[in-house]
Amino acid sequence: MVNKVSDIIPLNDIKIIKKEETNKDINFSDFLKKAIYEVNDAKKYQEELTQKLISGELENLHELSIARGIANVQFSALSEGISKIVDAYKEISRIQI
């Protein structure tokens, strides 16, 4: 027996990243904190969906896949950014005055 494929259900819980105004003066530490919190929120959302899948509450497996992909991309970008910051700090610390 062939089951009908369900309709696409919109993902209301996925956050859409909006471009912020470039005119604002943003403190670097605030920017970094915000990025870390966003990555943490994405990871928590992924874990929440995983628990729902385990308990049988999650109806759409693709929602978990998308959340997992978003969390992984955000974490990779943050890790790469932090690595670049550390490299820049090391290079600056080697400069003799």
UniProtKB/TrEMBL annotation:
<dbReference type="GO" id="GO:0003774">
    <property type="term" value="F:cytoskeletal motor activity"/>
</dbReference>
<keyword id="KW-0975">Bacterial flagellum</keyword>
<dbReference type="GO" id="GO:0009425">
    <property type="term" value="C:bacterial-type flagellum basal body"/>
</dbReference>
<dbReference type="GO" id="GO:0071973">
    <property type="term" value="P:bacterial-type flagellum-dependent cell motility"/>
</dbReference>
<keyword id="KW-0969">Cilium</keyword>
<dbReference type="Pfam" id="PF02049">
    <property type="entry name" value="FliE"/>
</dbReference>
<keyword id="KW-0282">Flagellum</keyword>
<dbReference type="GO" id="GO:0005198">
    <property type="term" value="F:structural molecule activity"/>
</dbReference>
<dbReference type="InterPro" id="IPR001624">
    <property type="entry name" value="FliE"/>
</dbReference>
<keyword id="KW-0966">Cell projection</keyword>
<protein>
    <recommendedName>
        <fullName>Flagellar hook-basal body complex protein FliE</fullName>
    </recommendedName>
</protein>
<comment type="similarity">
    <text>Belongs to the FliE family.</text>
</comment>
